[in-house]
Every structure is written in structure tokens, then in C-alpha cells.
Amino acid sequence: MTQAFDDAGKYGRDFLESGFESIAAVTRDAQAISGEASNYAKQVFETGTAAAEKLLSAKSIEKVIEIQTAYAKEAYEGFIAESSRMSQLYADLAKDACRPFESLVAKAK
Description:
- By secondary structure, this protein is mainly α.
- Helix content is 95%, strand content 0%.
- The protein is rod-shaped, with a radius of gyration of 25 Å.
């Protein structure tokens, strides 16, 4: 009977330790996501500002269309690339959050 209590206590400690490791991983990955989002927002602002400046200096409607088309293409490609990076960061967050519990699940089998 005492062995069962000892085993339950050890399992509880292991579970708690895994929980702390998981929280640390989520915090670390959330900071990476936040930093990436901040960098992307800065990049979008700078790109948009540069495009607006070019538009203001355009001398013809053809030039305006050319500038706007180039900006739209750049913005779209940047968004697709950023979406891919963010998807990977969120997938990493999920994996890192679960990883500390893998050994507990393996022990329970």
C-alpha cells in the first residue's frame, strides 16, 4: 500500500515538473511569435510608407498603376511568407508544449 502512495506521489511530482517545463516552453515560443509579429508589422509599415511616397511623386496614372501593382505583389508575397513562418512558430509552440508530457504518457502505457 505504501508503495502505491509513493508511486502516486512520484507521478504527481513528475506531472507537476512537466507542467512547469511546458509553461516555460509556451512562454518562450509566445515571445518568439510576438517578436515575429512585431517585426512583420514594422516591415509592413515601412513598405507601405515607401510605396505611398512613390505614389505621391508619380507623374502619370501609368506610373501610379505600376507602383501600386508592384506594392500589391510585394505585400501579397510578404504576407504569404509571413503566414508560413507564423504557422511554423505556432506548430512549434504546440509541439514544445506537449513534449514534456511525452515521457509521462510513455510511462503510463
